[in-house]
Amino acid sequence: MAVERTEPPFRLDERTMLEAWLEYHRATLELKCEGLSVEQLREQSVPPSSLSLLGLVRHMAEVERAWFRRTLADEDVGYIYVSDDDEDADFDDVPTANPDEAFATWRAECDHARENAAVVDSLDTVGKRARRNGDVSLRWIYVHMIEEYARHNGHADLLRERIDGATGD
User: Fold this and answer.
1) Which helix (H) or strand (E) holds 165?
2) Are 52 and 91 in contact, with CB atoms under 8 Å apart?
3) What is the mean pLDDT of residues 55-73?
């Protein structure tokens, strides 16, 4: 299945613009992984880093869950891959990780995120669970998620180029 990525229009209302850019970056991560073998998805960058494309997918599943389910909706859901004993398991445990499971989990977390955000009327609405530094608005969550994906998609660019020479945005 080919990944569809749509460039956001130049003029939209604020919420639609934020949602469009978040979807754009979600699709970008998937594009960076498209067409690679299990071994290529698991391939780690350079020691001592455990960064890999599969690790990025697993990490972003955790991030989607943290912000849209635990913070925004106050759902009582635990971690998917990481634990108190291993905060980096999303990256570190990829040599035995199943890519099909990781992508299905990430896509499911993106779906949960869309559903939880859709029932919030205003970007100014704060999440039901405060973070360490206080309340967090849906606007802040969207901006943070765009930043998080953009940063990690930069990593994905470099990983993909190292794996098979593919470049592009």
Assistant:
1) none
2) yes
3) 97
Q: In angstroms, rounded to a whole number, what is the distance separating the alpha carbons of residues 115 and 108?
A: 11
Query: In angstroms, rounded to a whole number, what is the distance separating the alpha carbons of residues 54 and 100?
Result: 10
- Paired strand residues for 131: 134
Residue 132 has pLDDT above 80, yes or no: no
Phi, then psi, of 96 in degrees rounded to 5: -115, 5
On the question of pLDDT at 1 being above 70, the answer is no
Question: Which residue type does 40 have?
Answer: Q
Specify which residues 137 forms β-bridges with: 126
How far, in Å, CA of 91 to CA of 97, rounded? 10
Closest CA to 168 of 56, 8, 18, 34: 34
Domains, the chain, with CATH or none: 14-164 (1.20.120.450)
**Rounded average pLDDT over 130-155:** 93
Once rounded to an integer, what is the mean pLDDT over residues 116-142? 91
